[in-house]
C-alpha cells in the first residue's frame, strides 16, 4: 500500500506561481527579456492583509496585481518568510492573478538567497555593493532585479489613512485605487464624512 505524501510548506514554496510577461516571442525561451506586468503594485506585509487586498482586487476586476514586500523585508524578515507567505496566498485561490516582488534593501546576501530560492522579481538598492553581480544572476534565471522600489499602494504609510480600527476606510481607498487602475483613470479617495 502506497501512502500519499503530505504536502509540507516547502512543497508549497516550490509551486509559487510566476506569471511575468515575456517580451520575446514566447515564454519558453530560457533567457528571454522579462518585464514587469502593468498591474497595480500593493505592499503586503502579512497574509491577512494580502488576502484582503487580493479579494478587493478580484472584486474590482483588475487584470492582476503585484504584491511588494515591505522595504528591506528580504533582509530583516527573510526570504523563507516571503516565499512561505506567497505559497499560502497561491494555495488560497484568490480569484485574481498575482505576482510578487521581494525587497532586499541593501542586503546582497539576501538577494542572492532569494534568487537561489527561486524568487524571480526582487529589489536591491542601487547603492548596494555587487549590484551588477546580483542583476546578472537574476537575469541568468530569467528574473528581474530592480534597483528601486516600484510605486505602490501601501496601507501602512503613517498619516496616509485616518485611524480606522475596522479597516473599512482603508479597504474603500484600496478599492478606489484599483478601480481607477482598471479604468485607466486616476483614483480619488473620497474624504471621511465629518472631517
Provide key terms for this protein:
elongated; two-stranded antiparallel sheet; about 35% helix; TIM Barrel; disordered C terminus; 7 helices; alpha/beta; single chain; five-stranded parallel beta sheet; about 200 residues
Explain the layout of strands and helices.
Blueprint: H1 9-14, E1 21-22, E2 34-35, E3 41-43, H2 47-59, E4 65-68, H3 73-76, H4 79-91, E5 98-103, H5 108-116, E6 121-123, H6 131-140, E7 144-146, H7 168-183
Parallel strand pairs: 3-4, 4-5, 5-6, 6-7
Antiparallel strand pairs: 1-2
Helix pairs in contact: 2-7, 5-6
Describe this structure in words.
The chain has 195 residues and is α/β, with parallel strands linked by helices. 36% of the residues lie in helices and 12% in strands. The protein has helices at residues 9-14, 47-59, 73-76, 79-91, 108-116, 131-140, 168-183; strands spanning 21-22, 34-35, 41-43, 65-68, 98-103, 121-123, 144-146. The chain has a 5-stranded parallel beta sheet with strand order 3-4-5-6-7. Helix 2 (47-59) links the parallel strand 3 (41-43) and strand 4 (65-68). Mean pLDDT is 75; it is low at 1-31 and 182-195.
Amino acid at each position: 500500500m502506497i501512502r500519499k505524501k503530505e504536502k509540507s510548506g516547502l512543497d508549497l514554496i516550490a509551486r509559487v506561481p510566476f506569471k511575468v510577461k515575456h517580451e520575446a516571442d514566447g515564454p519558453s525561451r530560457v533567457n528571454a527579456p522579462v518585464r514587469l506586468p502593468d498591474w497595480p503594485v500593493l505592499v503586503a506585509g502579512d497574509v491577512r492583509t494580502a488576502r484582503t487586498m487580493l479579494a478587493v482586487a478580484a472584486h474590482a476586476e483588475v487584470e492582476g496585481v503585484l504584491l511588494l514586500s515591505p522595504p528591506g523585508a528580504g533582509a530583516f524578515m527573510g526570504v523563507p518568510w516571503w516565499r512561505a507567505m506567497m505559497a499560502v496566498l497561491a494555495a488560497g485561490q484568490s480569484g485574481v492573478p498575482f505576482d510578487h516582488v521581494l525587497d532586499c534593501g541593501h542586503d546582497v546576501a539576501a538577494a542572492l538567497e532569494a534568487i537561489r530560492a527561486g524568487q524571480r522579481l526582487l529589489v536591491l538598492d542601487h547603492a548596494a555593493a555587487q549590484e551588477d553581480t546580483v542583476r546578472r544572476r537574476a537575469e541568468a534565471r530569467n528574473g528581474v532585479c530592480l534597483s528601486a522600489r516600484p510605486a505602490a499602494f501601501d496601507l501602512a504609510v503613517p498619516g496616509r489613512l485616518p485611524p480606522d480600527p475596522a479597516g473599512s476606510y482603508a479597504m474603500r481607498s484600496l478599492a478606489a485605487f484599483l478601480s481607477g487602475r482598471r479604468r485607466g483613470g486616476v483614483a480619488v479617495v473620497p474624504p471621511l464624512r465629518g472631517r
